[in-house]
Specification:
This protein is mostly helical and 218 residues long. The chain is built from seven helices and no strands. The chain is extended and about 65 Å long. This is Zinc resistance-associated protein.
């Protein structure tokens, strides 16, 4: 019974350790959803389109015609969208529009929560199989739990700090990530750490519990 309880307590620790690199990377790079990121995406799209034209042998005159047609298409879509919005304004009053917006927000939140819970449950099941294959000792399981608690505390503290620049913030999060990886490396093998990282990938559901039974001796 004690072993089963420790096993259940260990799963959240491993889950936190598995998602830590993604959390740290996201925190180290704020502003990824701002206008600069959108501009960069548009630039990459344009570069890819021009490369496609080059490969297809499209001449400059034809490219100009395509650009013109592309612009006309977007303008038509904008006008159609505006007409649709005006029509909706004629049909709905302010209270109904607000009610629809609230309903959409609630539905999106519900769908997001369902996907998140389903993803977390699936990951915990895979982690359970992975942990069993490692045959960790009670002491090692306890150490993993301590690592989780330490990581959460350090992340919380770092989030509350102010930085003079994005580069300084990025370096601080990188240092925490490296420190966490080093501490984890004292307990798990490189193969086990990579198995946890691979588990974060949608295509990495299979085969991670195989061949990872060895662990570092203290």
């Amino acid at each position: 019974m004690l072993r089963l309880t420790q096993h259940k307590l260990l799963l959240p620790a491993l889950l936190a350790i598995a998602i830590a690199p993604m959390s740290l990377a996201a925190a180290a790079a704020p502003g990824q959803g701002d206008s600069s990121w959108s501009e960069q995406r548009q630039e990459r799209f344009e570069e890819q389109r021009q490369a496609l034209f080059e490969r297809a042998g499209i001449d400059d005159e034809t490219r100009a015609s395509l650009e013109e047609a592309h612009g006309e298409h977007h303008q038509a879509l904008r006008e159609l969208h505006e007409q649709h919005r005006e029509r909706m304004d004629e049909i709905l009053d302010d209270e109904q529009r607000e009610a629809l917006r609230d309903a959409k927000r609630e539905m999106r939140k519900g769908h997001h929560a369902e996907r998140r819970d389903s993803h977390r449950q699936g990951m915990q099941e895979r982690l359970s199989t992975l942990v069993d294959s490692w045959e960790l000792s009670d002491e090692e399981r306890e150490r993993l739990t301590e690592l989780r608690e330490s990581l959460y505390a350090d992340m919380q503290e770092l989030r509350g700090q102010s930085f003079d620049s994005r580069e300084e913030r990025r370096e601080a999060w990188q240092a925490l990530r490296d420190e966490h990886r080093e501490a984890l490396g004292e307990l798990l093998t490189e193969e086990q750490i990579e198995a946890m990282k691979a588990m974060m990938q949608p295509s990495g559901h299979k085969g991670h519990g195989k061949g990872h039974g060895k662990h570092r001796s203290s």
